[in-house]
Amino acid sequence: MKVLVINPIMYTSETKNIKRAASIKDTMMYDFCLAFHEMGHSVTLVGGEPFKPTKSETYPFEVLWWKCKCQKVCMPHCLPFMPETYQYVKQHRTEYDLIITSEVFSLNSLMAYRAASDKTIIWHELAKHNAIMKKIPSKIWYGAIARLFMRNAKVVARSVEARNFVKKYCMNTDVNVIDHGVNLDKFKASTEKDNSFVVCSQLIERKKIDGILEKFAKYLDQYNATCRLYIIGEGELKEKLQSMAQTLGIAPNVIFTGKMTHDELLPILSKSRALLVNTVKDNNMISIVEAIAVETPIVTTDVPLNSTYIKEYQLGIAKKQWDESDLNDVVSNSEMYIENCMKYRYKLSTKQRVEQFLEIERERLNNGKK
Q: 0.85 cut: is pTM over it?
């Protein structure tokens, strides 16, 4: 099968000033396309030019970089507009068997669907209206554009919450949910854990890393004075958080590693007792998926959409507000949580995700023949 994957935003940028990464090989969408390739399919990945890596890379499949236009209005980090989408899909539609685009609230998804409605699947993540400009553009898009011009588009949501939201506007939303996947060949499982926790996150306000430091300080005081906390990531609050660790008296136990590649972070992530998440605003978090894949339990707020299956399958602790007692719980019951992660990890495979998409496409083709 020949597959076109259109994903303008290759990684999250909190601001319009996109900091180009050196490589895209650590992104979820790259691993997703790699799974198609390794399963014998021909795949082309399209990204927005502002996300093109700084260093020259070679890939086992075709990668195209399309220019984002009208950037003052359609800012590439949140609402990219790639005019080439419609022309390319229209011209090459007979060459592809399947076209996968990201998000219903997307000019590029609209163009791809209008150019090849019978071949396009929209992989949708948002479970509520986009907050840009007080949600007005989002409400107009879903309420008018999606209902009028994308009403029958095949949509596959990345969570139950996203499915329940988008099906109000797109009648052909599939009942099946396909979450983010992870490359299990890269993310090897480990049941051996060190005396440590880990945070994999941008060091920005909405991630509430300061709250993690406060809870970790109480955990050290009440339960385990020798435990370590690795904070992997960069962001505008790094110096403030380092100063806070000093003030709390836990600086010797907290290691700020900076941003790391997958190869660099995996030994830490796989040996940690738990991944800690304290976010107040997120959708599906790929760091949670990656942690479960290496059999590292999760301690998180109930904000990430992943929290639904964390609770259901007991892959850790997900609640409105967790505290130091929950850290002690995940350590005390680590054998159970790790075993549950071991059982669940295979559901997260990128190859499993590919097979799910292929099954949905086969079902659509069969229904079209009736």
A: yes
